[in-house]
């Protein structure tokens, strides 16, 4: 079964840091592009970051550029999101999503909640 | 940057009725458009890719159509489990290869 499982969310103070992980199983992780997408409470979906299958190409949304770092370890079938200088507006459920290769996400992980508050 | 606009924001229908959801792009996306379903407390689930292709395991009552700037998701006969929020999405083919989502349509029971 193709599966993505996120972890690492929690409560953090403004200005703090957090590292999210996404563990992949059931498919050849190293062959797929991956994305992080977030959803603030009661809001819609917002793309956060993209990484190519090899990790050589990376993009970020303007809202997180310079603060967040996406990475992957293909040997460990894992995707990461290092989040620094966190703000209240970063509060959201963060999902990792596999890109099918056609520019859409399938599947998505169950999400991990990040709350930035003092 | 391409903007996706979904309508209506909320759609109130009864089980057994037909649902028609719209997604309009600010410029042509060819047929590179996907639809997702999201239920409360759950992750989005891919329903339709490339405008009209059902993803694996998606019931035949879900269908997608359109190309260019105007797209439609149709649910032919609503089942109780279909009441959820639906998002359209496209990805740019040039850097940054970002996903862009519509604001969502909430399909609620009338």
How would you explain this protein's 3D organization?
The complex is a heterodimer of chains A (118) and B (110). By secondary structure, chain A is mainly β. Chain A is 0% helix and 52% strand. Chain A has strands spanning 3-7, 10-12, 18-25, 34-39, 45-51, 58-60, 68-73, 78-83, 92-99, 105-108, 112-116. Chain A starts with a strand and ends with a strand. The mean pLDDT of chain A is 97. By secondary structure, chain B is mainly β. In chain B, β9 (85-91) and β10 form a beta hairpin. Chain B starts with a strand and ends with a strand. Classes of the chains: A mainly beta (118), B mainly beta (110). At the A-B interface, β5 and β10 of A face β5, β9 and β10 of B.
List the helices and strands and how they pair.
The complex is a heterodimer of chains A (118) and B (110).
Chain A: E1 3-7, E2 10-12, E3 18-25, E4 34-39, E5 45-51, E6 58-60, E7 68-73, E8 78-83, E9 92-99, E10 105-108, E11 112-116
Parallel strand pairs in A: 2-11
Antiparallel strand pairs in A: 1-3, 3-8, 4-5, 4-9, 5-6, 7-8, 9-10, 9-11
Chain B: E1 4-7, E2 10-13, E3 19-25, E4 34-38, E5 45-49, E6 53-54, E7 62-67, E8 70-75, E9 85-91, E10 99-101, E11 105-109
Parallel strand pairs in B: 2-11
Antiparallel strand pairs in B: 1-3, 3-8, 4-5, 4-9, 5-6, 7-8, 9-10, 9-11
What oligomeric assembly is this protein in? heterodimer
**Most extensive interface, chain pair and sizes:** A-B, 25 and 26 residues
Strand content of chain B: over 45%
Our count of helices of chain B gives 0
Instruction: Give me the Rg of chain B, rounded.
Output: 13 Å
For the termini of chain B, the CA-CA separation is: 36 Å
Shape of chain A: globular
Percent helix of chain B, as a range, is: under 10%
Q: Radius of gyration of chain A from the CA trace?
A: 13 Å
Strand content of chain A: over 45%
H and E order of chain A: EEEEEEEEEEE
Q: What helical percentage do the residues of chain A reach? A: under 10%
Shape of chain B: globular
Quickly give the structural class of chain B.
mainly beta
Rounded average pLDDT of chain B = 96
Q: Please give the number of β-strands of chain A.
A: 11
Distance linking N and C termini of chain A? 40 Å
Low-pLDDT regions of chain A: none
Sheet bearing the most strands of chain A, described? 7 strands, mixed
Largest sheet of chain B: 7 strands, mixed
Compute the number of helices of chain A: 0
